[in-house]
Write a structure and sequence with these properties.
This protein is mainly alpha-helical and about 160 residues long. Helices cover about 40% and strands about 10% of the residues. The chain contains seven helices and three strands, in the order H-E-H-E-H-E-H-H-H-H. The protein has helices spanning about 1-5, 25-35, 50-60, 75-85, 115, 120-125, 135-150, and strands spanning about 15, 35-40, 65-70. It has a three-stranded parallel beta sheet, covered by helices on one side. Strand 2 (about 35-40), helix 3 (about 50-60) and strand 3 form a beta-alpha-beta unit. Helix 2 packs parallel to helix 3 and helix 4 (about 75-85) packs across helix 7. The protein is globular, with a radius of gyration of 18 Å.
């Protein structure tokens, strides 16, 4: 599909990949190799080595490779960020972040493919030992949310417990 699109005069300029996690690497790599820009839903891939490979492909091809994180653009996050940056709530010394997913508190019934794969470690990757909303993913979301609120800074310490 990627090669076919690249060969068309009226082919696509970019693709948005919003498929299940385990398909991201394969699809993104094919389109980058074909010279098509990639917009990739989080998580980038299910392994660090696959993510590094995509970054190398992006560098080699010069194509655009971006990853979306929609939570950072929710109205409540934008409002909180505005209030923090303007000092409306004072100096923040500590933040506690929670990524709650009520639907994932029990086994998913066989009612739909969309929910079932999210709890299959073979499909969501090692970063999520209990599924797409497992502990490690909750930490990733929490760090990303904190960066959205406070800005990211390589010098900022982070700990988990």
């Amino acid at each position: 599909m990627a090669k076919g699109e690249a060969e068309r005069n009226d082919g696509i300029e970019a693709i948005a990949i919003v498929t299940p996690n385990w398909t991201h690497h394969r699809i993104a790599a094919a389109f980058l190799k074909a010279g098509i820009d990639v917009i990739l839903d989080k998580p980038m891939t299910t392994t660090a080595s696959d993510a590094r490979e995509l970054v190398e492909l992006q560098r080699a091809t010069g194509r655009v490779l971006v990853m979306t994180y929609p939570y950072a653009h929710h109205a409540m996050v934008r409002q909180a960020k505005h209030m923090i940056r303007n000092g409306a709530i004072g100096t923040i010394r500590q933040a506690h972040v929670e990524y709650a997913q009520e639907w994932a508190t029990s086994a998913v019934p066989a009612r739909g493919k969309g929910a079932i794969w999210r709890q299959d470690p073979e499909k969501v990757g090692r970063t999520s030992t209990t599924g797409d909303t497992g502990l490690d993913i909750a930490i990733i979301h929490s760090v990303a949310d904190a960066c959205a609120f406070f800005g990211s800074d390589d010098r900022a310490p982070a700990t988990t417990s």
